[in-house]
Every structure is written in C-alpha cells, then in structure tokens.
C-alpha cells in the first residue's frame, strides 16, 4: 500500500513538473516579459504549496529557501524600479546564503585546504570583474540608479560562486546521490542566472528559454531534496562504505 502511495506521489510530482515546463516555456515563447515573470512567480508558489502539503518532516532550510525564492520573484515583477531591483538582489543573496548554510554542518566536517579558499576568492574576484566589464559594455544600456546597486550585483555574483564551490566540495567529499542532487540544483540556479543576464542585458532572446529550463529543473530538484529524507540515511551509509574502503 505504501509503495502505491509513493508511486502516486512521484506521478503527481512528475506531472506537476511537466505541466509547469510546458506552460512556462509556452509563455516565454508567445507572451511578453511581464507575463513570463508572473508565470515564474506562480510556479514557485505552486511548488511551495506542494512542498508544504507533502512534507513529512519540516526541512527548515529548504522551506526558507523556497520562501526566499517566492519573495524574490515578487520583487522581480518590479525589476526595472530602483527599490524592486535592490530587493530582488538582496533576497536573491539570501536565497543562495540559505542554500550554503543548509550544507554548512557537512562542510564543517571537511578538511578544507588553503587552495580551496584561494580558488573561491579567485572565482569571486573574477566574477566581480566580469560583471563590472559586462555592465560597462557599450551594448548594455542598463544604468544603475545609485552606487548601492552595483555593490549588490557583485555580492549576488559572489554568493553564486560560493554556492558553486561549496557544492563541488560537498559532492567530492560524500559522492552520494544526495550530494549529486545538491550540485545539480546549485549549478542549475547559477546557470539560470547567467542565462537570464545574457537574455536581458544583451537581448539574446533564446537565453530566456535556457533561464526558465534551468530554473524549473533546479526548483524541482530543490523540492525533491527537501522532501527526500531517505536520501539522508542513504548518504550516511554510502559515506561509511566509501570511508571503510579508503
């Protein structure tokens, strides 16, 4: 009976993902940017509701991340306004910091080498410089409203880089199904933001599809990550087996 319920839950979740993908990509293809943003917000709300209904145990960090994504996309509707742009970046930073903090207990068990810290700092510096160059290119017409906005943009990019490095370090250490899921949705969100940057600031229209594809996939994996507590036990046993072999 329980296996039937489990299969039923999986079928509902897969159906939700497929419908969300079809609707969102259709709106991206045939409707305006405002409609596309609203569709993304509604999709996040739908996945949040699904998470709240299906949760057996409250995963505080996953719930917090989903709430931050929801709030961020509320301000995404006002991206061109000074306050909307700032709050979008601030809440976005909190999204990524929350995902980083969620794995911090596992990362604290890892013997982090100085080279990892150096690489992280270099990536943050390179990302900041790249954003600076991009935003000052002649083909980019966007202008900041004040001096705070570029700082928030650089901080947003730095949070992305830290999330990426942490995801790699976590997966290299544990090499489990759960760590693999984490690295997939972490880099999915990163690729989504990169695609969105090129789509919005460089008018590469096709990148809007990549943005939405990566975002929806990552959102679905994040929800699955938060609901699947069996993978926590599985990761423990997988790590124990690997540790014994070593």
From TrEMBL:
The chain crosses the membrane at residues 12-31, 37-53, 60-79, 85-104, 116-139, 151-169, 181-201, 207-227. The keyword Lipid metabolism does not apply. Keywords: Membrane, Transmembrane, Transmembrane helix. This is YhhN-like protein. It comes from the Bacteria.
């Amino acid at each position: 009976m329980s296996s039937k319920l489990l299969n039923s839950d999986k079928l509902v979740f897969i159906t939700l993902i497929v419908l969300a993908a079809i609707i969102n990509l259709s709106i991206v293809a045939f409707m305006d940017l405002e409609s596309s943003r609203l569709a993304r917000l509604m999709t996040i709300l739908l996945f949040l509701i699904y998470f709240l209904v299906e949760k057996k145990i409250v995963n505080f960090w996953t719930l917090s991340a989903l709430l931050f994504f929801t709030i961020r996309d509320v301000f995404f509707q006002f991206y061109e306004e000074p306050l909307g742009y700032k709050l979008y970046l601030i809440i976005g930073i909190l999204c990524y910091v929350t995902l980083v903090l969620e794995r911090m207990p596992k990362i604290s068990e890892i013997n982090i080498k100085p080279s990892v810290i150096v690489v992280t700092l270099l990536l943050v510096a390179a990302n900041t410089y790249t954003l600076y160059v991009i935003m000052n290119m002649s083909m980019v017409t966007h202008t900041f409203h004040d001096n705070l906005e570029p700082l928030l943009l650089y901080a947003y990019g730095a949070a992305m880089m830290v999330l990426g490095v942490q995801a790699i370090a976590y997966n290299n250490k544990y090499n489990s199904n759960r760590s693999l899921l984490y690295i997939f949705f972490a880099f999915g969100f990163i690729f989504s933001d990169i695609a969105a940057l090129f789509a919005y600031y460089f008018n590469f229209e096709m990148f809007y599809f990549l943005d939405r594809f990566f975002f929806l996939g990552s959102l679905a994996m994040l929800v699955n990550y938060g609901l699947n507590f069996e993978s926590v036990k599985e990761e423990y046993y997988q790590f124990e087996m690997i540790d014994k072999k070593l």
